[in-house]
Amino acid sequence: MKILVISQYYYPEPFKIHEICEEFVKRGNEVTVITGRPNYPDGKLIEGYNDPSRMNEIVNGVHVIRTTIPLRGDNPISLIRNYLSYPRHAKKAIKSLDEEFDIVFVYQLSPVFMIKPAIYYKKQYKKKIHVYCLDLWPESMKVLHIKENNPIFKFLKKICNRLYKQCDFISVTSPAFISYLNQVNKIDLKKLNCIPQHGEKMFLKVREYKKQPKLNITFAGNIGKAQDFDCLVKAVSHIDESYLNKLKITVIGSGSYEKELKEQIDKNNLCDVFDFVGRKKVEELIPYYNDTSLFLLSLEKNSNIGKTIPSKLQTYMSAGRGIIGSIDGATAKIIRNSNAGVVCDAGDYTNLAKIITDMIDAEDSFIERLSKNSRQYFIDNFTIDKYVNQVVKKWEELVPLVMQY
Predict the structure, then answer these.
(1) What total of structural domains would you count in the chain?
(2) What's the whole-model pTM score?
């Protein structure tokens, strides 16, 4: 089967689409990806990718075509240019292709406009579009404090509805997304299903839980406002000093809120507790995860975030560690049902502080049990094999003659 993948982001950017594409190839398919130049999240071109030969290359069996879209930069204007340019550049790349594909798979993060090149291909070749929706639009705009009564929100809602309705099927990462797309974007329930994200298989190499000199709680990912570090700092500042000597919080990553976060930590005299190690490549994370006692998963309390199941959940479970959650919605439910961690409501810094001190006091066997439950839940629910099996099953319905062949 010949698969055309539309995704503005691709490796070495920190998204999982490259693993999905490589799994498609392993199963005997031909895969072509149309993407941008890698610059997420810092807005700077990742080292090594100013080489013209990287613009059209074969990576682990996947044909990767990179378009010359403007970089995200470090300001709203450059980000808007980045968002709006990809559809145009991707459409141009599609026109240059001299081959026909059996299906178009869109890995839809922000912005939703990346669906437009897929619609162009559908109209030209009468092929089906399968969208994997990771970010809800226009709901995602609320993070920028654009409310539903704002003319911009209303305008984007019309665009989103038009784009989504031209797709043949939409899979989402969270059950709550189905209700949103049905009620807000007016998508027929028959065109929707939920396929949870997969976790990285490589983190199965992380060793089994081993007690550390201090309880080492690790956060790995984007340091943004949405991750609600304010709640974490407030929680730690309310912990008795006798406990702080037994606590270490490792922060792996970078982001727009990093400077302000460090200022808050310094203001609260917590520098001895927090350890910032910077952004790391995926393959560099295993030593840090080996020394992790528990992972932290936190998100702000608002309607958009509450619908999300962050991909970190699958990653943390793959690494086989228990999870402390300051989070609502489906994510909290999964952590509780899997017995893989302890959860408080998003923004509840008082209970988060209590969870941390309880974990410092906890028997080693309890944390070990959380770790084992976490990895087992990953194996049962979040492997890439399970993910791709569900995608392929849907394709069998969308393009049955091709799949039979």
Answers:
(1) 2
(2) 0.86
**Residues 270 and 175 grouped into a single domain:** no
Query: What mean pLDDT is reported for the chain?
Result: 92
For the stretch 383-390, contacts whose Cβ atoms lie closer than 8 Å and that sit 24 or more positions apart, written own/partner, are: 383/198, 383/199, 383/201, 384/19, 384/20, 384/23, 384/198, 384/199, 384/201, 385/23, 386/198, 387/20, 387/195, 387/196, 387/197, 387/198, 388/20, 388/23, 388/24, 388/27, 390/171, 390/195
- The domain in which residue 78 lies consists of 2-198+383-404
User: What is the model's pLDDT at position 98?
Assistant: 78
Alpha carbon separation from 72 to 36, 80, 154 (Å, rounded)? 11, 8, 25
Across the range 354-362, mean pLDDT stands at 97
* pLDDT band for position 153 (cuts 50, 70, 90): confident
SS3 content of the chain, % helix, strand, coil (to 5): 50, 15, 35
Do residues 239 and 373 share a domain?
yes
Q: Identify whether residues 171 and 271 lie together within a single domain.
A: no
